[in-house]
Amino acid sequence: MHDDNQVTRRNFIKNSAGAAVALSIPSIIPASAFGANDRVRVAVLGVNGRGQNHISGFSNLSNVELATFCDPDNNILQTRAKEYTAKTGKTVKTENDLRKVFDDKTIDAVSIATPNHWHALAAIWAMQAGKDVYVEKPGSHNLSEGRKMIDAAKKYKRVVQHGVQLRSSVALQEAVKHMRDGLIGNVYMARGLVYKWRPDIGDRGTSPVPEGLNYDLWTGPAEMKPFSKNYVHYDWHWHWNYGNGDIGNQGIHETDMCMWGLGVDTFPEKITSSGGKFLWDDAKETPELLSSSFVYPKEKKIIEFEVRPWMTNEEGGVGIGNIFYGSEGYLVVKGYDFYETFLGKDKKPGPTRKAGGDHFKNFIDAVVARDPKICNGPVETAHLSSGLAHLGNIAYRTGRALTFDPKTEKFVGDDDANKYLTRKYRGPYTIPATV
């Protein structure tokens, strides 16, 4: 038996049949590796929910070949493969174990749409195996994982795209430029809004593991708990063992937009959160309603963030999105591809635009060029936007105002809060101490 802390992706590779192949993968693929007529071979990890969008997104790109689908639920996996064949006439390889995908030297990139608790480990293992990575939001399940992902991307010279597709919106890129150019003056506050319909999920208790599901693989680095239909396949979002609540779900798009629009590239120093469960007596552990404040004293900026789960008014027409407040006006972001501005005391309508973008194409362009700087949502955004959500959740879980040191990425004089910055990993699914 291996000590849990000693089992890493490298140990797995060395002990696997593909050891020589996997270890021979170069850490840098030269730009010439992808010729004009060559395709980037992509594997999609997790094909139940958001993974379907990944399949569709990459299928639309002429220079991409969807090579492999991977999911620990073989029922869903085979269904997706059959759907893909019926739609495209093409066949795709299927795997239950993502480690076999990493050992496949013909795979150039992986697209990760697993539950949150798998995101960082899958990304790091993929980078160690020489793959480029598109990883869904949140990039990390806890704050320490985000820093490890940055370190891995740098060490293995990998292209990493965080799945915050609003970064590729032409309209929102324009909105940020307006704020940088002073359209609404000194931008001092960002508000993030996540008002989504989240009903009672009940409490279905425990039950036998369904046939076809590899529950050990699904659980991965998380603590092993008796199987419950309240976890698999969507409601894991509302359990701390796997998810991060709605601030760490839909909310990552908005935490990212808040930081991008404000122009802050570090974590806040003061964090407060309050909320709880007020509607349903169900199996959810994460709060239904959460209000958080993130203060940047040195920059004189503040982020306010609110999650609401049910019937509610909108703010400035926004239910999912952001509002930025400046000394000369305010700017509203609705969804992923629309903004409008209101200027002066009289709120005179200013510039507005609706226009999207292709976040998957942006990733592939960066892969082909071997240039991470092309990515609109680079690995740093995975750490920052996900980390902001983690800080808000930690303030809620500790029940007090917290002081954070952005340089050390630790809470100041608070051992209890610092315990939430990482987790105990279940071997052999262990984030390596050093990547």
TrEMBL record:
Pfam families: GFO_IDH_MocA (PF01408), GFO_IDH_MocA_C2 (PF19051)
PROSITE patterns attached to this UniProt entry: TAT
InterPro entries, per the entry: Gfo/Idh/MocA-like_OxRdtase_N, Gfo/Idh/MocA_oxidrdct_glycsds, Gfo/Idh/MocA_OxRdtase_bact_C, NAD(P)-bd_dom_sf, TAT_signal, TAT_signal_bac_arc
Gfo/Idh/MocA-like oxidoreductase bacterial type C-terminal domain ranges (all copies): 206-269, 360-431
Gene3D superfamilies hit by this protein: Dihydrodipicolinate Reductase, domain 2 (3.30.360.10), NAD(P)-binding Rossmann-like Domain (3.40.50.720)
Limits of the Gfo/Idh/MocA-like oxidoreductase N-terminal domain: 40-163
Superkingdom of source: Bacteria
Molecular function in Gene Ontology: nucleotide binding
NCBIfam families: TAT_signal_seq (TIGR01409)
Protein's recorded name: Gfo/Idh/MocA family oxidoreductase
